Amino acid sequence: MFNGSAPLFIETLSIRGGVVNNLEFHQERMYATGVAHHFSPPSWEEIKERLDTDVVLSDPTSLYKCTITYRETIKQISLSKYSTRKIERLIPVYVKDLSWYNFKYANRESFENLKEGLQPNDEIIIVTPDGFISDTSYTNIVIEKSGIYKTPSTPLLKGTQRASLLKKGVIQEAKITLEDIYIPCTIHLINALMPLGTLSLRNTSITQ
C-alpha cells in the first residue's frame, strides 16, 4: 500500500469561529499514531503557528475543514469551507481485513478502489466477511432504532466524533450486522465535520 516508504498521516479538523471541535480527541489520535509508528507528531502549538487563523476568524459562521498532513513534521495544511456531501444510496462492500486503515493514513487509494464505478451520490458501507458493518469510506456509522443510538464495535477507524459521542454516553457500541439494518432504522453518518444528525438516511437507501 505504501511502497515500502514511511507512510504519511492526516488529521482533519472541524473549525468554526476559530474553535476546533473535539480537539482533545484529535490530539489523542495523533499521539497514538506516533506511538504506534515510532515517531513524535507535531504539537498543537506547531499546528497553530502554521494555521491561517485570520481566515476562519473573519468568517465566524462558516464551517472550515482543516486537513493536516504530517509525520514527524507538518508536511501540509489545507483549509477550505465545508459543505456536506449529498448521499442517496449506500452500497454494501465486503472487505476481508479491517486492519489496513486503523490509522488515518494520507494514502486513500484503497477507498477509491472500493468505490470504483459508483455514482457521485453513492457511498459504500464496509462489511466484514461474517456480515458485520464497519464504516463508510469517510464516516463512522450510527444506527438509530426506537430512540437508541448504536455504533458498530467493528469500525475501520475510530473517529473523533464517534469518540466524543461515546464518552458523553449519547451512543453505544454494539455488533451490528448488515441484516440488522435492513430492518427499519435511521442511518446517521458522522465524522469530524458532521455531528450526529447532519447526514441521516433511511435504511431503504441501502442496495441489496
From TrEMBL:
| Signal peptide per UniProt | none
InterPro entries under this entry?
Answer: Aminotrans_IV, Aminotransferase-like, BCAT-like_C, BCAT-like_N
Superkingdom = Bacteria
Q: Which organism is it from?
A: Porphyromonas canoris
Its taxonomic path starts at: Bacteria, Pseudomonadati, Bacteroidota, Bacteroidia, Bacteroidales
Q: Which Pfam families match?
A: Aminotran_4
**Protein name, per record:** 4-amino-4-deoxychorismate lyase
Q: Which Gene3D superfamilies match?
A: 3.30.470.10, D-amino Acid Aminotransferase, subunit A, domain 2 (3.20.10.10)
- Please give the coiled-coil regions recorded for this protein: none
